[in-house]
């Protein structure tokens, strides 16, 4: 009798799993497919309720949007040059005070990440390799993984590749060949040109504003304390790899030296980055300058150009042009927006967001899911505190800040669930008003979230 009951329960469980849509899943790879213990009765499966009302992509009333924005647009802290654009998700214009182009600051990252997703694909990964070099040397070959780490981390998201795992693989491969002593070289030939844009201020590198851009580093070139940046990121990555190789039982002779190896060099080990979709989300959420520059260099390579600042900027333009993004008046010198000489029309930023929201471009969706959430995540976690409450959690936007420049570009819904795209830019802000201007842009975005604009 007990066996009969157990069989009946198991049969009911299977039926319940099939109703839930997971009856054909593999219990070895999908935890949801693991059957409960015999004797446990499961409730009937029911589809969960929606956590929020569905967005209503209906018409927006231009007059209502204008009234919602008018008070904050008049804030003198924004300076004399304020550009604002609001559209529906399909690009239909609703409000425009956007005559000309402005310095985009970090909203430039929207163009860089969109181009990377389009030309490489959201599942693309970047591989860091170790190959056999000359004279029994092993060579660490930079593959342009912007998030390569010096050590594993259980809590990191995305889960990054690291040189400790790479060294352990290498040590095993060497021991399998009977080799227990080697030297370490490192190859940075994937990228070319200077490590800093010629359109950046000269003090960016010496003052540690940004790491010299290259295809090989660990922890984005930050020092172990996280308070500064190393002078030679590739060398420090090679040193970290050599130390891990020593810990794995291989004697490393001498110091790491720069080397260039052919693509046909015998492989020993490799590690892959997280998928590009996750790198894009990280880059946008935290406004990661180094990651954005590496992605721009990768776009240069993927479009048949050099992996350089010049090649990256040209590649991004070419990909966005193919996407139909208008680039009139656009000036691109880098991938991060650190250059004050970058210029973008608000319509260009809006068009990138429109493409990401379109059903025609699912490959661009990580651009939207990577946008920081007002008062909750990333570069917006400490903002919107003093704006109307409706903006918190409803606004998702990419920030852009340089001294004298403030920008915000993203999406929101109004109180009735109407989605809209907005771009807000002010690039003639008095230095003493930098924080106040940022709060004024928060007020503008929150005003859209707080209105009944349909």
Percentage of residues in DSSP E strands: 5-15%
Q: What fold name stands as the CATH topology of the largest domain?
A: Beta-lactamase
User: Total number of helical segments?
Assistant: 11
What is the helical fraction, as a range of percent? 25-40%
Q: Main β-sheet, in a few words?
A: 6 strands, mixed
**Strand tally, please?**
11
End-to-end separation in angstroms reads: 64 Å
CATH C-level label of the largest domain: Alpha Beta
Summarize the structure.
The chain is α/β, with parallel strands linked by helices.
Secondary-structure blueprint:
Blueprint: H1 2-19, H2 62-73, E1 82-87, E2 93-97, H3 108-120, E3 127-132, E4 137-141, H4 163-176, E5 181-187, H5 233-247, E6 251-252, E7 257-258, E8 267-272, H6 276-286, H7 289-302, H8 309-323, H9 346-357, H10 365-369, E9 396-402, E10 405-413, E11 419-426, H11 434-449
Parallel strand pairs: 4-5, 5-6, 5-7
Antiparallel strand pairs: 1-2, 1-11, 3-4, 3-8, 9-10, 10-11
Helix pairs in contact: 2-11, 3-6, 3-7, 3-8, 3-9, 4-5, 7-8
């Amino acid at each position: 009798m007990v066996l009969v009951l157990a069989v009946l329960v198991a049969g009911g469980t299977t039926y319940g799993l099939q109703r839930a849509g997971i009856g054909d899943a593999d219990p070895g790879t999908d935890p949801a497919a693991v059957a409960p213990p015999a004797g446990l009765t499961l409730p009937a499966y029911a589809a969960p309720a929606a956590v929020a009302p569905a967005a209503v992509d209906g018409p927006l009333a231009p007059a209502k949007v204008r009234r919602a924005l008018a008070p904050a647009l008049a804030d003198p802290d924004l300076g004399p040059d304020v550009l604002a654009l609001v559209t529906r998700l399909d690009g239909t214009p609703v409000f425009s005070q956007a005559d000309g182009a402005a310095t985009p600051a970090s909203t430039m990252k929207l163009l860089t990440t969109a181009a990377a997703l389009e030309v490489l694909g959201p599942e693309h990964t970047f591989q860091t390799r170790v190959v056999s070099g000359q004279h029994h040397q092993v060579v660490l070959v930079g593959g342009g993984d912007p998030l390569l780490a010096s050590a594993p981390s259980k809590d990191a998201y995305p889960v990054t590749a690291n040189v400790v795992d790479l060294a352990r693989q290498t040590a095993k491969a060497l021991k399998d060949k009977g080799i227990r002593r080697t030297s370490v070289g490192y190859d940075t030939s994937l990228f070319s040109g200077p490590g800093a844009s010629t359109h950046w201020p000269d003090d960016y590198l010496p003052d540690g504003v940004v790491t010299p851009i290259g295809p090989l580093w660990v922890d984005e070139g930050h020092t172990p304390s996280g308070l500064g940046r190393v002078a030679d990121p590739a060398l420090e990555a090679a040193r970290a790899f050599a130390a891990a190789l020593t810990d794995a039982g291989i004697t490393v002779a001498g110091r790491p030296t720069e080397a260039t190896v052919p693509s046909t060099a015998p492989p020993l080990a490799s590690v892959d980055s997280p998928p590009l979709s996750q790198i894009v989300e990280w880059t946008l959420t935290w406004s990661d300058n180094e990651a954005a520059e590496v992605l721009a260099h990768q776009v240069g390579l993927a479009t048949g150009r050099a992996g350089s600042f010049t090649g990256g900027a040209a590649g991004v333009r070419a990909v966005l042009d193919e996407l139909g993004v208008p680039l009139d008046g656009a000036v691109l010198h880098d991938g991060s927006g650190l250059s004050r000489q970058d210029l973008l029309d608000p319509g260009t930023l809006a068009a990138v967001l429109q493409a990401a929201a379109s059903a025609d471009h699912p490959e661009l969706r990580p651009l939207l899911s990577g946008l920081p959430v007002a008062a909750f995540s990333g570069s917006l976690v400490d903002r919107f505190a003093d704006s109307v409450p409706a903006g918190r959690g409803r606004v998702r936007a990419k920030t852009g800040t340089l001294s004298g420049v403030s920008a915000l570009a993203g999406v929101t819904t109004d109180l009735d669930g109407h989605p809209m795209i907005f771009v807000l830019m002010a690039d003639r802000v008095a230095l003493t008003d930098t924080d106040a201007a940022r709060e004024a842009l928060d007020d503008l975005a929150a005003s859209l979230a707080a209105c009944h604009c349909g």
